[in-house]
Amino acid sequence: MKLFPKLAIIVLSLACLSVQAAELRVLAHSSFSVDKPLLAAFEKQYGAKVSIIKAGDAGEMANKLILTKSNPIADVVFGLDNSLIGKAQQAGVLAPLPAELARGGKVSLPGAVAIDYGYVTLNYDKAWFAKRKLALPRSLDDLTQPAYRDLLVVENPATSSPGLAFLASTIHALGEDKAFALWGKLRDNGVKVSKGWTEAYYTDFSKNGGGRPIVVSYATSPAAEVFYSKEKPAEAPTANLLLPGTVFRQVEGAALVKGGKEPQLAQQFIAFLRSDAVQKDIPTRMWMYPAADNIALDPVFKHSLLPVSHDTPDAATLAAKQRGWISRWTRVVLKSAG
Fold first, then answer.
1. What pLDDT, on a 0 to 100 scale, did the predictor assign at position 5?
2. Which residues form the signal peptide (predicted)?
3. Residue of 159, 122, 164, 220 whose CA lies nearest to 30
């Protein structure tokens, strides 16, 4: 008789473990972040464990998603943007979204649910330019001039979504031939190419100890600099260079992975990402603007005004042209000196 309660406890424990055994695998880029208490509440609500698989920059993440198509490593993917969603759709790695996941809001993304958006553009180090009394460039062409030699760092569009976005914005503004002529001049003027945003911003950018005072980053980056500063300066140490042909509106979304093991849980996670609580958390966590309407922004965003215009090709053009653009860019910018 004394053994029976112990046996009952063991059986009950095993039953609880089986209920909680569901694991949701979320593939995301390295900048993805959700408030831990919010994530814990999601896990508790659905009796699941959320495993975040970070796969580098969004471009690297998309490539990994495609390379693992035959044996999917995730159930849901976050961070495919309007420069990458077409590539993923063409590769057949995304599952159709049910109608109930369709959402309104400020932006949309074909094949995914839009979660946030932002603007890829040039940032510059204010102190660097002030110390040298060098005027800021006023155009892309200025960046090809001797005064700005070895000052710019960009991300490789083959591995980086900001890099691809920046390339696309130059092409949309100038046309392909003029854009690639410009890129040839930038190469000759010492442009540096980094693998991804993290390396470009935190290693190569002069604000963080590198040698390049102009970097391809985000329009929200100056606000982030103030937010994370211990001194909370009245002005941001960096600012945007919103030159024609340098502003791309990036829309990030979440999508279902074809062949994922937990499709229902994946749908619930996408709905969670569009909940008011997560949408309010996004601006000062991932430094993007929330896709949902009527979400108040932290006052720190006064340091990052929204661009009034942008040069963003439509998703269909990006899907059809980007492979050729990247190939041509690689030949023009990364070709050997010989």
1. 52
2. 1-21
3. 159
Domain contains 165: yes
Q: What is the rounded CA–CA span in Å between residue 20 and residue 95?
A: 25
What's the CA dihedral at 59, 303, 210, 117 to 10 degrees?
Answer: 0
89 and 234 housed in the same domain: no
Asked whether the beta carbons of 123 and 264 are under 8 A apart, the reply is no
Average pLDDT, stretch 18-28? 80
Residue 130 sits in which domain range?
Answer: 118-249+308-334
Q: Mean of the pLDDT values across residues 166-176?
A: 98
250-275: pLDDT as tens digits: 999 999 999 999 999 999 999 999 99
Rounded CA gap, 24 and 45, in Å?
13
Is pTM beyond 0.90? Reply is no
Residue 12 lies in a domain: no
Total domains in the fold of the chain: 2
As a whole number of angstroms, the distance between CA 87 and CA 188 comes to: 31
